[in-house]
Amino acid sequence: MKHRNSVLYAVLQQLDWGQFNALVAAHQADKHVRALPTKTQFITLAFAQLSGISGLRETVTALNSHHNRLYHLGARPVKRSTLSDANTLRPSAVFEEMFAFMVSKVHRGLRRAMDGTTYLIDSTSVKLNQLSAEWARFSARVCGAKVHVIYDPDTDQPIYAAFTTANVNDITAAHEMPIQRGATYVFDLGYYDYRWWAKLHAAECRIVTRLKSNTRLTVTRERLMPPGGPILSDRIGTLPARQANSRKNPMNVEMREVRVRTDSGKVLRILTNDLVAPAQQIADLYKRRWLIELFFRWIKQTLRIKRFIGTSENAVRIQIAVALIAFILLRLAYGAQKGVPKLLEFVRLVRANLMQRRDIQALGQPDTPVQADPRQLCLDWQLV
User: Fold this and answer.
1) Is residue 217 part of a domain?
2) 37: domain range?
3) How much is the pTM?
4) Is residue 329 part of a domain?
5) Which of 75, 118, 124, 313 would disulfide-bridge 184, Cβ 3.0–4.6 Å?
6) Number of separate domains in the chain
């Protein structure tokens, strides 16, 4: 009967290994390395993320228990101390740039018409222990980091991610984010900066955000809204001449405030530079911001980005980058099969069968026994 590779092998096949090897060479990540190549390091960390394992010792023990199947993955058994050193010393840029490459490749294939492109911007905090205090201290008792993300809700894909320590403001990270001309950007109060808004407006981007309760809008005209609906008011005006009574406001154009009452009774002041679209459309765009929160929750709970197998900044950067790559690999593998209708169900089946020799196209079906190859049995016996 036809030989089957493991489910992990099928998931990792979604990665462009040629590009990965090029990044390893460009950053000289394997220079003077004999025991643990960067490829094996990545496969080990991806195995940990996809199997839901946390902890360095647990990762190494679980991976090495499948040593007779590592050959087909292009990996080898791993020592705990060697993996720890690699996570501390090997350049995280290899993994971060691999994520950026995969994002750009996937997004090009899924890109829609420019006038329909909507991006959500937000960050999520990652709690770290006191062993990371040297570089990630936020307060006397708290250490942490942040992952800043631009997320495409229509394709359910992050298109950009950056890593900072927890004491870096969201708006500081936003100034380093790429801007796509003509796109719609939806974000919350963490990105309250007139100068950055002006930069988006100059790129012909539509802005949808919240207006602070103490920010006064000088109204020039107002649209009448039918009573009893969720839209309380729709007004056009100008922002204050200065932000926080110190910086001159470069956003000296007409803006629009749409006041909305949510299902819970809370009133939101939604701000946009789109003076034409229906008020309900603006409200619906801001409501979509919740999707990036669901993405963060999915990543943390499903790929277990809660406990780290290293304490250095480099190790944390690598693990976050590998987790984001694992998310894209799962999405690509899920899209390539038709047997499992729901992503979460597919992820659970991948986790349960990660090192089993099963056809990833038939994970939702009862397993068909694979006739053992006598030569493989001999090989497995010799490796035990």
Assistant:
1) yes
2) 7-94+307-383
3) 0.85
4) yes
5) 118
6) 2
